[in-house]
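We emphasize that the prediction below concerns an isolated chain of 435 residues; any contacts that depend on oligomerization or on bound cofactors are therefore not represented. The input was used exactly as deposited, without trimming of termini.
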Amino acid sequence: MSNIRPAQYTCEDVIRLFSEHVDVIIAVDKNTERYHTVIRRGMFKDLFESDGDYNDLLSTLMIHLNTTSERLPEGYQAFLPNFGTFTRKYSRRLKLVINEGEAAHIVQMMVYPLTDEDAYMLIMDELDPEENEQESQTYQKVETIEKTFLFSMYIDLVEDKTGSLNISEISEENVQAELKYTDWRNMIVNVIGKDDQALFMERSDPEYLKKMFAPGRTSSFDCLMQNLEGVYIWVKLIFSRIETGDLNDYKYVFMVQNIHEEATAMFTSLKKLSDMALTDSLTGVYNRGKIETSVKNAIKEWADRKDPLAMMIIDIDYFKSVNDEHGHAAGDKTLKCFAYIITECFKEEKADIGRWGGEEFVVVLYGKTLDEAVGSAEKLRAAVAEAPMTDSKKVTCSIGVTDVRENERFEDVFERMDKALYAAKSAGRNKVMAG
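Result of the prediction step, given as a token string:
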């Protein structure tokens, strides 16, 4: 055939030549959802079987991440039956991974619907390495955009349909799918974070979109959403109504933007600011405002549950002499060491620890009876007495302990605890007293 000039080719010559060089030809019966390979060469022999389920073939070829052949998380599996319905010719570049960790193979796929037979012909060819490299460079150029916008689609509420689906983690090109908007909404909610599902259903409701969006109006909200790797990330869901000139024409663009990095950074900053607002800057335990709130909340909760609840107030003995003899820097060091010892003593307990003021600290002990709290206070007193604080100098502490009783207010509990501390001081200090 090499001696035949192109102008001499017959249809039979072209078909024979085509069949000798094309990598894959697959026939699909849409009624039975089965496929049969007519031709399968090269790496495609390792990619899929000669005959099988059409949905499995689609998953292998199209519905996976750009850089892996791993199947989608369970929440996204519900969408698979809506993909792969073709009403016209369709062309797409595929990235197919045969061996994990190796570079993806770039494949050109053409789909030819056979409308009279309700069947498709899928024809595929792997591109040569040079084309593969060009595709790789192109992918790197758009990777930043793909990381930002994960998903987009067109919505027509009047027709209840979607179109122009683009899932950037699967492909830079639109995904072929026939999917009603109402069906999409009821399926996609399963990959929205549990705490955000009600908000998603409210904001994506067709009647809400019609009522709240004037033509050209765009609105968004943030939520947690599972990505195609099965990880929940922070995203911004964006709805924008298209201006068509007809007020009864409800068409929208929907996009999912990846904001995980910036959201995580923001939450980290907010957490630090929140901690600063609640924490004593010198000792690192709760400040006066936070520990007082903890005490009051614990008393209110006790009134409902009646679980054991005890509290103690701790005071460093003769702390003024530490400042007078060694200076305020030594006093600050003593307070930090003192707070550290308290924290270590109660690290295995459910406890809130805070600096009440000066050299006084308060501990709320959840699930502890008065006798148990007295035992814990004795261990703390002994630990303080044994630990060097400043220049090998040791200090002691006095502790007043009480529990919460029926029909008591914060003032009642604190007064009894404070009197117990005064009794410990009066008894010679370095004591634990219960009130």
